[in-house]
Amino acid sequence: MPLPAVFHIDQDAPTGSRPADAALGACSATKTSSCSERNVSLSSRSTRRAAAGAARHGIDRTGRGCGKAVRRRPILRPCKNETMWTETSGVIGVGYEGKDIASFLEELTAWKIGTVVDVRLNPISRKKGFSKRALSEALAEAGIGYSHMPALGNPKDNREGFWAPGTPAAKVAGERFESLLDSESAAEKIIELTDLASRQRVAVLCFEASELCCHRKYVLTRVKERLAALVGS
After folding, report:
1. What is the pLDDT of residues 7-23, one digit of tens each?
2. Which range has the worst mean pLDDT, 29-38, 166-175, 193-202?
3. pTM, rounded to two decimals
4. Which helix (H) or strand (E) holds 89?
5. Please, is 116 exposed, middle or buried when counting C-beta atoms within 10 Å of its C-beta (0-12, 13-18, 19+)?
6. Across residues 79-108, what is the average pLDDT?
7. Cα dihedral angle (201, 203, 209, 212), rounded to 10 degrees?
8. What DSSP line would sit under 149-215, residue for residue?
9. CB count, 10 Å around CB of 193?
10. Cα-flanking dihedrals φ and ψ of residue 47, to 5°?
11. Are residues 95 and 208 in contact, defined by beta-carbon separation less than 8 angstroms?
12. Measured between alpha carbons, how far is 42 from 51 in angstroms, rounded to an integer?
């Protein structure tokens, strides 16, 4: 079976029609300084060394940097090594941090998203339009489906580590979430999400603008692995 056409991200490019975070996988060249505004103490020497690596992803020495997104929009160009995004199917990650519902819907429509899969454990938000009921209704009006998959959500007590990517705390949080994805209920939803993404374009939704600071990157990795297996079968 021939590989479908997919796309790569150029960061230093003018406005384009693809998500701000690096959701297309290892082929992505996007680097971002966006997530959520949190301060994480990085006091130990080993943690400071880890922070130096995190700085390459837009995180400063105090752990800040998961804040306002860099407003440089990427463009699309072919990438031979990716198989996760075609004209009619695929999976990406999206975050609504820093966006209003109108601009969010506009972007989803431009990307030709068929369904938004919400991986927030509790789909409620102080941002107008992003709680489950309001969001699903707004998406329906835009002709986009909505599915909430709490089995793929990250527990509240495992979130702080994600706010400081590249640190030991992030590694621990990631490993814990990986173990949660091994549960039967999560595995079933990964299969369901993969099946959906093989038939239409799917956006995996959480709050953080960058998946570097969000558990959805682990969900995306598992889905992409299954999609790659389907393409190669």
Report:
1. 322 222 223 334 434 33
2. 29-38
3. 0.69
4. none
5. buried
6. 84
7. -90
8. -GGG---GGG-GGGGSTTSHHHHHHHHHHHHHHTSHHHHHHHHHHHHHHTTSEEEEEES-SSGGGST
9. 25
10. -70, -35
11. yes
12. 7
Supply 188's token pair.
């079933």
CA 47 vs. chain centroid, Å, equals 25
Q: What is the pLDDT of residues 173-192, one digit of tens each?
A: 999 999 999 999 999 999 99
φ and ψ at 120, to 5 degrees? -75, 140
Higher pLDDT, 64 or 126: 126
- DSSP H helical ranges for 70-151: 101-110, 132-141
Q: At 4, list the tokens.
A: 């479908």
Looking only at Cα atoms, what is the longest distance across the chain? 52
Give the distance from CA 68 to its chain's centroid: 16
Q: How far apart are CA 127 and CA 139, in angstroms?
A: 16
